[in-house]
Amino acid sequence: MPTQVDEIAKVYARSLFELADKSGGEAKIAESASELEAIAELVRGDAKLREFLASPIVERDARGTALRKIFEGRVSELTLRFLLVVNEHDRSGHLQSIADAYDMMVQERFGRIEVDVFTTTGGRLEPAVESAIVQRVKAAFGKEPVLHSYADPAMIGGVKLRVGDQLIDGSVATRLRRLASNLHERGQSGLGRDLSSFLT
């Protein structure tokens, strides 16, 4: 699941995006996105690596040397230089957030939009549900949606979508709350009418 993207992450992501664009256009942008996502995935799955990248105890030079050993020859020169610059500014602990910010810029460039879909179980959506979501997101945002499915065990049923900063809640719990609220409001107005007719 994507991390919270802060302004600092956006600044670093923007720098890489512009460098990639200048050095090779969309092909280079896509290559950097793929490499950065692979690195972020590695960091997400390895607690020791996360700690190593974020720890203020580890000296900057030692971390830079380690980053070069790990990634040299495995990623492009541009991505490696970017990792070293991020380390020089003591932002290695923000790599996941930077990767998420970069991904958002890439999707924007390619006319796509990331959509997080939450259901009770996660996993693959029913084709009819997936098709409905795709059509509605396309109609609303004018972009090709890229769906990511997640489980939310707290849900009773239905679907929740997160598109950027927007949450579209079609869960059963929310529908029940709305129904209860409507019934409550109707009950209040009905009671008001009854009292009014009783007093006159």
Note down, in words, how this protein is organized.
This protein has 200 residues and is α+β, with helices and mostly antiparallel strands. The chain contains seven helices and four strands; from the N terminus they run αααααβαβββα. Strands 2-1-3-4 form a four-stranded mixed beta sheet. α1 crosses α4 (77-88) and α3 packs antiparallel against α4. The longest helix is centred in the first third of the chain and has 39 residues, at 7-45.
What can be said about this structure in brief?
The chain is built from 7 helices and 4 strands; from the N terminus they run αααααβαβββα.
Strand arrangement, major sheet:
2-1-3-4
Order of helices and strands: HHHHHEHEEEH
Give me the Rg, rounded.
24 Å
* Structural class by helix and strand composition: alpha+beta
Biggest sheet details: 4 strands, mixed
Could you report the average pLDDT, rounded to the nearest whole number? 87
Instruction: Count every beta strand, where a strand is a DSSP E run of 2 or more residues.
Output: 4
State the shape: elongated
First-last Cα distance: 60 Å
Share of residues in helices: 55-70%
Question: What percent of residues are in strands?
Answer: 5-15%
Low confidence ranges? 194-200
Please report the number of helical segments: 7
Q: What is the chains' assembly state?
A: single chain
